Amino acid sequence: MTKKEALTLAMNAITVETDTDREVVATLQHMIDQLSTPRKTSEEAKAKQSAARKEKTATARAELVAAVVPVLRTVIRGDMTAKEIYEAAKDALPADFSVAKVQNILLREMASELVKTEAKGKANTYRLA
Fold first, then answer.
1. Do the beta carbons of residue 7 and residue 32 sit within 8 Å?
2. pLDDT of 79-96, one tens digit each?
3. E strand or H helix at 81
């Protein structure tokens, strides 16, 4: 049984004989009306939630990058593939890190300090500039 159904039953069970009864019925009807109208989230509240979520994500990403990039810099020696870099650094990386995450860091966060060599049909190699 929903709240709305319970309030409707309670309102119908009251015999309206006094002013207090009328107040009770009016209050119950008001409560039923409130339950009947859907909640609306304002656009401003949605934007604020979105901005907060983006800020939280950016902060978490910055902390992760700050921890991972120095580790990757220490293991890159000459031309290495993302998989080779991952294998050399996996003991010092967070437990949930994978080759794909290492490659993402190489391409997005470390792009300015790396030289990427593309070879057709082969894995890309990376070396410090």
1. yes
2. 999 999 999 998 999 888
3. strand 80-81
Q: Quote the DSSP letter at residue 91.
A: T
Q: Cα separation of 32 and 19, whole Å?
A: 20
Tokens for 16? 């309206």
Return d(Cα 51, Cα 54) in angstroms, integer.
Answer: 5
- CA 73 to chain centroid, in Å, comes to 28
CB-count exposure of residue 112 (10 Å: 0-12, 13-18, 19+): exposed
Strands 114-117 and 80-81: unpaired
Structure tokens at 48: 């604020």
Separation of alpha carbons 93 and 70, rounded Å: 10
Least confident of 18-22, 27-31, 71-75, 111-115: 18-22
Beta strands (DSSP E) in 27-109 are: 80-81
pLDDT over 80 (residue 40): no
Residues 101, 95 contacting (CB under 8 angstroms)? no
